[in-house]
Amino acid sequence: MVRFSGAVTCAREPRGPLGLILSGRTADAPGEELELAFAGAAPADLPARLEDAVIECAGPGRYRIGSGARAWTIAARSVHLHRDVAPGFYRAIPPRPAPLLRRLLFGVMLALARSRVGIALVRALRG
C-alpha cells in the first residue's frame, strides 16, 4: 500500500477521529512528503519514530505496519493518504511574475514602513 523511506514520525491522536498519523518521505518518489492517517486506535507499543516503514492491507479494515524486523497491526475504519502536490503543480504551472507597477508600489510601502515618518504618513493616509 505505502512504502516510506527513512525516518517516519508516528503521531497519536487519541481524542480526534484519527487515531494515528504517519508522516515521512515516500520511497516511490524520492523526496516527496507523505502523510497516512488511520481512523482507528494506534497500537500501544508503536514507537514515536520508525525507519523505512511499510504499510500493507492485512484484510478488511486491518493494516500491517512493518519496520525492520518488527510489525504492528491496526484496525481502522478508514485510511487517508495525503501527498504534497505543490512541487508537481508549480512545475506544470509556473508562477506568474508580478506586474511592474505592483512591485514598485510594494517597494515604496516597505521603504515607508522602515521609518517612523513613513509609518505616520501611512496612518494619516488610511484616515
Give the helix/strand layout:
Blueprint: E1 2-12, E2 20-26, E3 33-38, E4 49-51, E5 54-59, E6 62-67, E7 70-75, E8 79-83, H1 86-92, H2 100-113, H3 116-126
Q: How many H/I helices?
A: 3
User: β content, as a range?
Assistant: 35-45%
Order of helices and strands: EEEEEEEEHHH
Backbone CA Rg: 24 Å
What is the rounded distance between the termini?
59 Å
Description:
- The chain is of the alpha+beta class.
- It folds into two domains: 2-89; 97-126, no CATH class.
- 25% of the residues lie in helices and 39% in strands.
- The chain contains three helices and eight strands, in the order ββββββββααα.
- The chain has helices at residues 86-92, 100-113, 116-126, and strands at 2-12, 20-26, 33-38, 49-51, 54-59, 62-67, 70-75, 79-83.
- Strands 1, 2, 3, 4, 5, 6, 7 and 8 form an eight-stranded antiparallel beta sheet that branches.
- β2 (20-26) and β3 (33-38) form a beta hairpin.
- α2 (100-113) packs across α3 (116-126).
- The radius of gyration is 24 Å and the shape is elongated.
- It starts with a strand and ends with a helix.
- The model has no long low-confidence stretch (mean pLDDT 90).
Please tag this protein with its features:
single chain; 3 helices; eight-stranded antiparallel β-sheet; elongated; 127 residues; alpha+beta; 39% strand
